Amino acid sequence: MSKATVIGAGLAGVEAAWQLAKAGIETELWEMKPIKFSPAHKMSGYAELVCSNSLKAMRLDSAAGMLKEEMRRFGSVCMLAAEKCAVAAGGALAVDRDKFSEIITELIDNEPLITVKHGEVEKIPEGVVIVAAGPLVSDSLAADIDSLCGGRLSFFDAAAPIVTAESLDKDHIFTQSRYDRGGEDDYINCPMNKEEYEAFYEAITTAERAGVHSFDERHDVYEGCMPIEAMASRGAETMRYGPLRPVGLRDPKTGHRPWAVLQLRKENAEGTLLNLVGFQTNLKFGEQKRVFSMIPALKNAEFVRFGVMHRNTFIDSPKMLNADYSFRNREGLYFAGQITGVEGYMESASSGILAGINAARYIKGKKPLILKNTTMMGALAEYISSSPSKDFQPMGANFGILPPLPEKIRDKRERYAALANRGLDELETE
């Protein structure tokens, strides 16, 4: 029986190993933890969700929903786990991150064709290999990848703080999903009036940052992971058009739309922990406590995790990878996950699915599976393998990367639904 090696047990790695095992391929899955942890990882289990517990929208007429449905049809282990530990999040799929990791860890450990090895892989081994080491790849392996690729790109990613639900000031919150999508208690809203917002803005723009400086001035910043303080520095109204936007919400105490609103989302099934939505940050821990506590609902908040920022690394995939995630200059070598330039949890996992399927096909002497670009997984694969941009940047699932429909549909929701249905109709799962 031929064998394969998967480096990294994040979302992309577990998906790749799962697909290889489904194809009957004996697989070694290398996990650096608990021997060594990256700066952002804390849990010992596989598929740890670092930045957020949200896997984005579920509805089919959304790019994220379309992607998840494609993954489900491929037998995604991440979708299997997510559906078992989902927590309320409006129209989104959010999970209890501890249970999510526990379920995947158990499934992988109990799969007889997968052997998990713990330790740091410093060099890419010979044979059929999938590098799914993630954006937090260790320095030694990163150096080997750098040597293989002749250079890499890096950017920085920031994670949001988590507070306890019981520490909120109940007089300054209300529960409502934006535009009443989902259940009424899916989000906890923390309103601010104009005076409170202006004081918060002044504090956050003058607060002391940690580690990396001038984050918002870097040329390689990925906009989707912009720290809240960097966003605020772009103008007094920027946050009110971003994560603090009040549109679609009405405070029942006043009967009016607040001036600004911080939304909190459940971090676990019990709802005892809450994530500050959109509040990725690189402020010093003491500054986070001081500044975020200026929001009335958080004036006595207990922070169980402060926001952190960590390095992400990705290769120049359009010059290095094919649409089946294979490396152009070495047969039998594949890459998967955010290191390829797909951005987002489910995007990373989906790349692992295709890398695993294609590594198995390579071993069996079959043609690679290259999905049509009318599918979300196929469009992402096409983007990372053939983007014409001279400054290649990560890309998440969105309808803009799909080819347009032959007919014009004015209504956006109807158009998105048509794009999703077209892609799913043309999806090849074998």
Give a short overview.
With about 425 residues, the protein is α/β, with parallel strands linked by helices. The protein has twelve helices and 16 strands.
Helix content: 25-40%
Q: How many domains?
A: 2
- Mind describing the biggest β-sheet? 6 strands, antiparallel
What's the CATH class label of the largest domain? Alpha Beta
Total number of strands: 16
Distance between the amino and carboxyl termini: 21 Å
Mean pLDDT: 89
Instruction: Supply the CATH superfamily name of the largest domain.
Output: FAD/NAD(P)-binding domain
Ranges with pLDDT <50 over ≥5 residues?
213-220
Note the beta-strand portion: 15-25%
CATH architecture of the largest domain: 3-Layer(bba) Sandwich
Estimated structural class: alpha/beta
CATH topology of the largest domain: FAD/NAD(P)-binding domain
Q: If you compute it from the alpha carbons, what radius of gyration comes out, rounded to the nearest whole angstrom?
A: 22 Å
Number of contiguous helices: 12
Strand order of the largest sheet: 10-11-12-13-9-14
H/E order of the elements?
EHEEHHEEHEEHEEEEHHEEHEEHEHHH
Shape: globular
Descriptive overview:
- The chain has 430 residues and is of the alpha/beta class.
- It folds into 2 domains: 3-157 and 311-425, FAD/NAD(P)-binding domain (3-Layer(bba) Sandwich), CATH 3.50.50.60; 162-307, no CATH class.
- It contains 12 helices and 16 strands.
- Strands 10-11-12-13-9-14 form a 6-stranded antiparallel β-sheet. A 5-stranded parallel β-sheet has the order 6-2-1-7-16, covered by helices on one side. Strands 3-5-4 form a 3-stranded antiparallel β-sheet.
- Helix 2 (63-73) runs parallel beside helix 10 (345-363) and helix 3 packs across helix 4 (97-109).
- 47% of the residues are buried.
- The model is unreliable at 213-220 (pLDDT under 50).
